[in-house]
Amino acid sequence: MGTASNKWRELIRVSAVDYFTGETLVDSLVYPAVDMRNLSTRYSGISWRDMRQAQRSGKCFFGRDEAREALWKFVSPETIVIAHAGENDLNALRWIHPRVLDTQILHGGQRGLANLSSSILGISIQTGDGHCSLEDAMATREIAIRHVERQLAWNSSTEGSNEPEVDGSTWSAGNIDEVQPEEEDSDDMVDEEYDGEEHGW
């Protein structure tokens, strides 16, 4: 994410992968439709040169609204959206969604994605120049899958109990009343539907 002239966080790249197959659904730069202070290149890995090239070639979305519409082609109100520090993602998209599984909250609410990827998956991410939102989305998906597998195993070994074993409290995007600037970058999201068309980002 970059920083707009009003100091709010602004979406500059969006990536989404399918929860079940890992297929890339959306992965594109987002040319800001607002005046920008900076692109946070050190952390995002995205420069204005990248943006201009994508704009000239027509290989980017123009503004967060266009990016959000692209995501909504794969997401319904019943879709479970999986994200890490998902409040940041939804705030940047100006999107309130009723069903969110946040992998950060599942693991205590404080651990970063790179830390979880290393400790749970044994995979190092975010080692280059800035974050790759597609890499982050894939890691978030794998962490969610590991949690689901562990939960299913726990349920099957516990007689008379179907209660989920979740670390941390439940977070709902519906609790967002207004959008505020965020300090942390998080462009990774995953979604999952109940009707066989489930996805992850």
From TrEMBL:
Q: Where is the Exonuclease domain?
A: 2-153
Function of the molecule: Exoribonuclease involved in ribosome biosynthesis. Involved in the processing of ITS1, the internal transcribed spacer localized between the 18S and 5.8S rRNAs.
Question: One cellular component GO annotation, for this chain's record?
Answer: nucleus
In its UniProt record, a GO molecular function of this protein is: nucleic acid binding
User: Which residue windows are transmembrane per the record?
Assistant: none
Q: Which protein are we looking at?
A: Ribonuclease H-like domain-containing protein
Family matches, as Gene3D superfamilies:
Ribonuclease H-like superfamily/Ribonuclease H
Q: Where is this region: Disordered?
A: 154-201
Q: Which UniProt keywords apply?
A: Exonuclease, Hydrolase, Nuclease, rRNA processing
InterPro entries with a match to the protein in the record? REXO1/3/4-like (IPR047021), Ribonucl_H (IPR013520), RNaseH-like_sf (IPR012337), RNaseH_sf (IPR036397)
Q: Where is the composition biased (Acidic residues)?
A: 179-201
Q: Point out the signal peptide segment.
A: none
GO terms under biological process: ribosomal large subunit assembly; rRNA processing
Q: Superkingdom of the source? A: Eukaryota
Q: Which SUPFAM superfamilies match?
A: Ribonuclease H-like (SSF53098)
